[in-house]
Write a structure and sequence with these properties.
Elements lengths: L1 E2 L5 E2 L9 H14 L2 E2 L4 E2 L3 H150 L27 H4 L20
Length: 247
């Protein structure tokens, strides 16, 4: 609100909107521009001009205050909206942070479980590897012992078979030798009868020579059968002439 030339108040246009600061500055100018009383420190102010300016302030002050209040309210609303928006952002950020932390906790838990599972698997593999190596070593030891036992048993059986075969062969050779000696004795007696014309006493015939062991090459004791006397060949009957033959 401003004053007209006749002292009446009118509504200032928007371009001339009231400013309390400007009006106060105007009052200050009136005081400072008024003539001063020498040696008194006082100023002679035009009462009408000062009152008019105060009326301008008084009339326009409610509107200015109301506008200021509206500005303050708008500011508070803006601040409230900004605070609400900021709170929403903070709440959303906290939710996102909580979700991220939850995801991170899940990831850490999964990583921890994976590490535990990996360690458990490695431990089980190491134990299984050790058990397998121990079983393999036991099997090798057992197989080696069984092989040695089988070899010793086989060698023993082969030795026994060889000894039995040697004994059997010795018995066979002994029997053959005895039979050959008997035959040789019979042949010798037959030759003696043929060559010397002597009759052999079958009861007092000289015993044969001691048989020879073919294995050692030395004489061995005669068996009971070899020590028995051998009957000689029967004497050849004398030739008889035919009575009807020529004398």
């Amino acid at each position: 609100m401003n004053t007209s030339a006749n002292g009446e108040y009118y509504q200032a246009p928007a371009s001339e909107r009231f400013s309390i600061q400007q009006e106060l500055d105007r009052i200050e100018e009136i005081v400072l521009e008024s003539p001063r009383v020498p040696l008194s420190g006082k100023t002679m102010v035009s009462e009408d001009e000062l009152l008019d300016q105060l009326d301008v302030v008084r009339v326009n002050l409610p509107a200015a205050v109301q506008e200021s209040v509206q500005i303050v309210q708008q500011r508070e609303e803006i601040l409230m909206e900004a605070e609400q928006y900021a709170q929403e952002i903070i709440t959303s950020a906290e939710k996102q942070a909580a979700a991220i932390l939850n995801d991170m906790a899940i990831v850490r838990q999964a990583e921890s479980q994976a590490a535990q599972l990996r360690a458990q698997t490695e431990q089980e593999c190491a134990a299984l590897r050790g058990q397998t190596l121990s079983e393999i070593e036991q099997l090798q030891t057992q197989a080696r012992k069984e092989w040695e036992d089988t070899r010793a048993r086989t060698v023993g059986e082969a030795k026994t078979i060889q000894e039995d075969a040697d004994t059997y062969a010795d018995q066979v050779l002994e029997n053959m030798e005895r039979q050959f000696m008997e035959m040789l004795h019979i042949l010798r007696n037959g030759r003696q009868q043929i060559q010397g014309g002597q009759s052999l006493d079958t009861e007092t015939t000289a015993p044969p020579q001691a048989p020879i062991n073919p294995t050692t090459g030395t004489a061995r004791p005669a068996t009971r059968r070899e020590a028995m006397p051998v009957r000689g060949l029967p004497e050849r009957p004398p030739l008889q002439r035919n009575p009807g033959a020529r004398s």
